[in-house]
From TrEMBL:
Spans traversing the lipid bilayer: 137-165
Name of this chain's protein: Sperm acrosome membrane-associated protein 1
InterPro entries the UniProt entry points to: SPACA1
Organism: Eudyptula minor (Little blue penguin)
GO biological process: one example: acrosome assembly
Amino acid sequence: GIGIREVLLTSGCPGTEAKCIVRVEECRGPVDCGWGIPISEGLACVKMPCIYIPPENRFKYVWKMLIPNKTAHILPNDSAIMEVCRDTHSITFQCETQENGNIIASVKYTVYATTETETKKSRIETGQSRRITTDAILVFVLLTGVIVTVGVIFAMILMILHWAVVKSIWESKSGQDNQDKKLANKSSLRNME
């Protein structure tokens, strides 16, 4: 196929550079570039590009509709980009990029039927709504955990800073409990007498 490549030099570069670009040139590789991705894809129509490098008018483009078990139907479109509206069934298209009568690149696209696109869209939307619900729950749990943790840490810091106050409260409560016990013991002894 067609493309651009950089020719690098790994020794003899100026200065301390380990690699340097000598030139940029067009390269050719396997003709079949496989399956392409449309430029834009809506519910009604799809825009598909052929493989090319600028200037686009330097090449000839041959668009074909591929029909299973039949010869391909050549379309009258000879531009680098073709827009196709969806039909009731899926159709596969192929674009051949030619230069001087030779095929130098080829790419295929499948344009799905309107019903298939709507089915895929509803599956995607269902998956996204589930993901949003799950994400909301995870965020809620995470925030709750953070708030509780910060509260516990804050309480511990206050206890450490005001340790003398906490200690005196505990001591006064334990001292009051001891006095209450002594009074209860004295009253029980009196009742026994």
